[in-house]
Amino acid sequence: MPGPQARRTAPGEGERAGDARAAALRARAAEVRRATAGLAARLTPEDAMLQSMPDASPAKWHLGHTTWFFETFVLARAERTHRPFDPAYGYLFNSYYEALGPRQPRPERGLLSRPPLEEVLRYRAEVDARLDAALARARDADLLDVVELGIAHEEQHQELLLTDLKHAFSASPLRPAYAAAPPPPASGPAPRLAWLGHAGGRVELGAGAEGFAFDHERPRHAALVPPHALASRPVTCGEWLEFVAADGYRRPDLWMSEGWDAVRRHGWTAPLHWIPDRDGWLQFTLGGVRPLDPAEPVAHVSWYEADAYARFAGARLPTEAEWEAHAEVREGGDGTFAEDGRFHPAAATPGRGARQVLGDVWEWTASAYGPYPGYRPAAGALGEYNGKFMVGQQVLRGGSCASPRRHLRASYRNFFHPDARWQFTGVRLARDL
Amino acid sequence: MPGPQARRTAPGEGERAGDARAAALRARAAEVRRATAGLAARLTPEDAMLQSMPDASPAKWHLGHTTWFFETFVLARAERTHRPFDPAYGYLFNSYYEALGPRQPRPERGLLSRPPLEEVLRYRAEVDARLDAALARARDADLLDVVELGIAHEEQHQELLLTDLKHAFSASPLRPAYAAAPPPPASGPAPRLAWLGHAGGRVELGAGAEGFAFDHERPRHAALVPPHALASRPVTCGEWLEFVAADGYRRPDLWMSEGWDAVRRHGWTAPLHWIPDRDGWLQFTLGGVRPLDPAEPVAHVSWYEADAYARFAGARLPTEAEWEAHAEVREGGDGTFAEDGRFHPAAATPGRGARQVLGDVWEWTASAYGPYPGYRPAAGALGEYNGKFMVGQQVLRGGSCASPRRHLRASYRNFFHPDARWQFTGVRLARDL
Amino acid sequence: MPGPQARRTAPGEGERAGDARAAALRARAAEVRRATAGLAARLTPEDAMLQSMPDASPAKWHLGHTTWFFETFVLARAERTHRPFDPAYGYLFNSYYEALGPRQPRPERGLLSRPPLEEVLRYRAEVDARLDAALARARDADLLDVVELGIAHEEQHQELLLTDLKHAFSASPLRPAYAAAPPPPASGPAPRLAWLGHAGGRVELGAGAEGFAFDHERPRHAALVPPHALASRPVTCGEWLEFVAADGYRRPDLWMSEGWDAVRRHGWTAPLHWIPDRDGWLQFTLGGVRPLDPAEPVAHVSWYEADAYARFAGARLPTEAEWEAHAEVREGGDGTFAEDGRFHPAAATPGRGARQVLGDVWEWTASAYGPYPGYRPAAGALGEYNGKFMVGQQVLRGGSCASPRRHLRASYRNFFHPDARWQFTGVRLARDL
Amino acid sequence: MPGPQARRTAPGEGERAGDARAAALRARAAEVRRATAGLAARLTPEDAMLQSMPDASPAKWHLGHTTWFFETFVLARAERTHRPFDPAYGYLFNSYYEALGPRQPRPERGLLSRPPLEEVLRYRAEVDARLDAALARARDADLLDVVELGIAHEEQHQELLLTDLKHAFSASPLRPAYAAAPPPPASGPAPRLAWLGHAGGRVELGAGAEGFAFDHERPRHAALVPPHALASRPVTCGEWLEFVAADGYRRPDLWMSEGWDAVRRHGWTAPLHWIPDRDGWLQFTLGGVRPLDPAEPVAHVSWYEADAYARFAGARLPTEAEWEAHAEVREGGDGTFAEDGRFHPAAATPGRGARQVLGDVWEWTASAYGPYPGYRPAAGALGEYNGKFMVGQQVLRGGSCASPRRHLRASYRNFFHPDARWQFTGVRLARDL
């Protein structure tokens, strides 16, 4: 969320800018809220209750939680006489804000058969109406900052709704399809991997003062990078098959010590959602089971696997600073995003420079998640948004085929534990020059 | 299920008896199937998917499993050209029959959002129709034995549907009510406990050759019991309050060693579903939260607690043989059963002899669950029904307020692990004379 | 320990009997205490500290605990001005007597590097001297009862010292030998198994009023047994090899449900201490690794395995009453005991009637461990000796090659959980007639 | 270990330098090996076998492992006809080198009663003699690099021997003392904390090309730091008492999310080894239990606690670059080291600049452990030394009272998981300017 470094309306700029911003946010809020409901529209009430692991949440919970976020952080401030839709919802739909009191334990979100899905949709409708009314008259820049944060927050949960559902559906012996099947594998191979060089030296990263960004993207600051090169596209399934065939999952020398422990503990032999078949591999997708496409970016690999693959390939993972240095100058428009309705990464297309920088698959970096120099979390409960997760996780960049396009930018930082595999997580290689 | 000791039609008795039996079973099957559907009718699709612990199952699964039982063990034999409703259902709805292949892991039954509830109800309807047709022409005694077993099996799952649901609802912060609230506590105290003596010696227990009984109730056999007395009624909540007040949950001398471990591991301080309140105790029931009634039989205690309470009371638990010796001669008609729609035990009423022998609460016995002398499990997959659970569990007798009345009899044996608390499990004391 | 049913000196029998009993116990106490020290004499201080699992204890702890038992239950009563050797030892060496206060957690007994072994031996020496002095003047029958219990208790820990050590040594990659290697396998096969019949009916079991017995062996009482037969000798390793070869560890139909879970969870494919080898199987013994002798009784099998094997063999396990009915009339003198210094079962020798009834291997029974009718635990802390373990365990009979010969008798009851394998536990089959 | 960046003898420099280096290393090797044996000399064989948690190792194992290191990496290369002391020791004493084959599982090192301590000391003596002989003739720079690494490796295990032992002794109810008690608390308070400023900008960190350093300290490289200040001394026990008194362990807002989970899971209410007492706090030290000295640096806190304390204090933890920027210019000589035989941190003494930079307590940094730009692990098994641990851990700097003085330097990097508490780990605060 916007910390002290966030953009502020300059004094004296007047009401006009505030008006325009409020109007724009009102429209975007309505749009993003509709989009979430749209994603859930294909689900039965029972689908919407699925929770297949403690880290994932039911779709119904995502629907309720994002609504609770607007109700708690926006309506409670914006409405003169605020009354919550249901006082119990604070307990049910608070995710992790300690400052806001106790809450349903995360691993037990799947036990909420009540309220039923239709009631949660009524909750959404009422909050949407009240939010719209509030935004029709809102001018306070702080409040609008929170609205903007709420929109970004909702976009994050759109992605989680999809990836959590994919995990849950993959646990069903019926392997249900959420969407239409992705098109069959293209005939051709992926474009040849090229190395995009960088002379090294001082680079800048992080979000500038203008525009929305999460608190942890700020402040923009300088860093030093060595001479290095980045791959022109993510690692493909075809390349990963070579890793598998070369006993990549059986050679401890390729792995971090804890990665090797994870391989043995979980019995990993391939990325998540790969299914061995007589003639090779199938893949479970949000469109059901289909043959593996060697030209596609590999997805659903943990950081441990990404790191081991890079070592196998004689390369390494890029740092955040390296990644962002490339992303800024070559931000491509060739990615796959949630709006495409494909919900699966697509094979890279030929072209100059870095491809699929945004969209398709999140790209694990070599950087541990931590604060930028001078980082300040927001005050109050919203300060828990990112700051309290800054240990033990690795940064990912670029977004995925389940991310809304508007949600992404070069400075965007995502983070997961190094063993997480249920997101659309892939690999872009780097190497020293 | 009926083992080799089960009743068999005498040769030459003719078709008439077979006809009558088939007709009776056809009617009972229809009735019991309707009753199960009736229990589930109050549930939303989401309620029907709840699984709050590995030992419990979703209501939808109970609906599917009981149907699969009839389809697999009856229709597959009775229909000339049998085609399963859905070949995948064998995987989804097999409970534990190793002889019938792999199955959905028990702790993951709650992940079956598909098939949806309405589809499972269609499955029920089709199997019911085909079962009815099959029974219209069935005369084979072996097949009718299996139908009778299927009916008893369905009755068992009616009870589990209720108790599993109670556990799941109790895990919801909203504490939903499944049924109308039980009536408020009666004004009066429970009838005074009387001791019903037995001179000891040779007694007989187990089901005789006639009529339906599960395989483990046979053969009827003799046992020796010492001179002893049984309590005229189960232990009440009021009596249990004295145990709590006397630090019963804090005195290791009252407990089995593993019971004491359980007390500390789980932090037990009262029966399951008791809720401390400013002014005393509330109780979560299938009718919602209500005050504790001291005159009611205590329920939801583990064997460890039952055993510790008995020691506290200067008594002990009865053995199976003792229990059945009393039950046979004094089988009362004063119990509460599933048909009463109360779904909660009721306070004992005054009267001579043993009260609430059947119904209200299952009564833990001192007997470990094992085979009777000469026990033979059925052949084939149905031999897995009881025989493979004969270690590590304790026998309970008498049935509960969630048991169908017809399901119970003096020889009926139920069994659970000594730490189980989610059934309506209570205590009837015994002592040596 | 001797409960209320234990033998009591008849009034008027006079001092003479008390004198003789005291003298005899004084001699036996000295002897048994020496024997324990003898067993430990082959151990380095480091060996004596080994604890390879929570259920097992270090030899040093056994040495200290048995001493603490005499100090606490005998010296503290018998000495006019009793001062404990070290007040801290109550915490260190109490096993599980809740009535005597807190204690070193069982899984952390291996963390007691202090007191060093030599100090514990000094503790033994001092308590031995004081015990001897006390017994020189002791006449009180109650006190002598406790001395007798202390002797039996010490004998139990002699066996545990050996079996716990065997487990610990087997966990060392060096596979140390505790004793001289058992002689090489005899050339011949085991004697043919014969079935010893019993007409069934009323039998008596349990210890009579005279002589020492543990509380749980009393009262002697009657039970009914069906017509049945018992095997003339325990199941051999050779017979077990057939079970392994017939996929006995891969056929769920042979196993209790929880037994099958255990097979998969632990990856059992053979008895504990069997080691696969190029040419067959080796076995880890207290004399080191040596070839498996097919004529030997199989040892180190769990109750689950014993039960599955019996089903495989078309037989079953005997009940306690059946076992004891045979043991009483045919108590053989052909067993292997701790005094033999072999510490490993020996092949059966030909002979009439039941062979190896006492000694060689404990024999799992079909009986769950529980109280005999009319059982009363002793008063005070000694009441915790057996009574608080009477749930969840199975009875074993007969003793093993690690039991002192004097410790055993027909009425002796041992008990372990159904998955325990680290004792010398084997199988004698039974079947219905 | 020395990677490709390590110092290399310039061509043409001749044999003289090699001679001198070999002679110096020969002397140092002998000295450091003697020192390790000296640390172990106070231990009984039983003390030397203690393993109180999977992360810690018995002293005997440390003695064997460090010897195995020299035998495997030096003698096996240096001796013409190398024969290992005992072929089994490779299995027993390999720590984690996958390239060198299987090994005793880490959590089971405490099960090695054999070889006995005296045999391990013989192993040490023989390897020492052979090492000395080998070094008398060694001139190969690569081999000498490995000797130097072996010395540093041995020094690391000296510290671990002490900290692992402290943990093990603290688990004993007897709380044994390893060394003489530290002197009683000084009368005075700690010197006032001063803030040492840094203007920010480009700094250099890491080891230069000359002299020994571990591979992960190289290459020396530049980084940018913001304007900031570092505390002149570590946080004291007295300051930590204020954190405890202010409910620091009960305020989730001060903690990382995973830190708060750790607080609740482990029940942390104070640093490890603090013992509540009637009148305040005692502390378990390697000299036994003694009162807490408020003027001492706090030790045995996890990264989570260090981070929470810094937030409480309105400060933060320093990054590696910041820490090293200060350490280089102000490296103090006022620390407590293993050679002091105190084995406990000492109160800071007054003085200008940064105090206790080296020695006393390791200082947690804000930096996740990872590779420096351009990092290359060594080839072969020695490449596993550091490189495979570069995820999920946090860097610590400065060394402790259990570190040998020669072992430390400004560029030295240590790393542990954020929940580790059994090392002498403390806190030096930083803040932005």
In a few lines, what is going on in this structure?
Chain A is of the alpha+beta class and 433 residues long.
Counting copies of identical and different chains, the oligomeric state is homotetramer
CATH class of the largest domain in chain A: Alpha Beta
Order of adjacent strands in the largest pleated sheet of chain A: 10-9-8-11
Unreliable runs of chain A: 1-9
As a whole number of angstroms, the C-alpha radius of gyration of chain A is: 22 Å
Largest β-sheet summary of chain A? 4 strands, mixed
Q: State the shape of chain A.
A: globular
The CATH superfamily of the largest domain in chain A is known as paralog of FGE (formylglycine-generating enzyme)
The residue fraction in helices of chain A comes out at 25-40%
Contiguous helical run count of chain A: 9
| Most residues in contact: chain pair | A-D, 37 and 37 residues
Relevant terms:
homotetramer; about 425 residues; alpha+beta; paralog of FGE (formylglycine-generating enzyme); 2 domains; 4-stranded mixed sheet; 3-stranded antiparallel sheet; 9 helices; about 35% helix; globular; disordered N terminus
Describe the structure.
The structure is a homotetramer of 433-residue chains. Chain A has two domains: 15-170; 195-432, Alpha-Beta Complex (paralog of FGE (formylglycine-generating enzyme)), CATH 3.90.1580.10. Helices cover 33% and strands 12% of the residues of chain A. Chain A has nine helices and twelve strands. Chain A has helices at 15-40, 59-78, 89-93, 117-137, 141-170, 237-245, 257-266, 303-312, 320-330, and strands spanning 195-198, 201-205, 221-225, 228-231, 274-277, 280-285, 288-291, 362-368, 394-397, 414-416, 425-426, 430-432. In chain A, the strands form four sheets. Chain A has a four-stranded mixed beta sheet with strand order 10-9-8-11. A three-stranded antiparallel beta sheet of chain A has the order 1-4-12, with helices on one face. In chain A, strands 5-6-7 form a three-stranded antiparallel beta sheet, with no helix packed on it. In chain A, strand 6 and strand 7 form a beta hairpin. The first copy, chain A, starts with 14 loop residues before the first helix and ends with a strand. Chains in contact: A-B, A-D, B-C, C-D. Chains A and D meet through strand 3, helix 7, helix 8 and strand 8 of A and strand 3, helix 7, helix 8 and strand 8 of D.
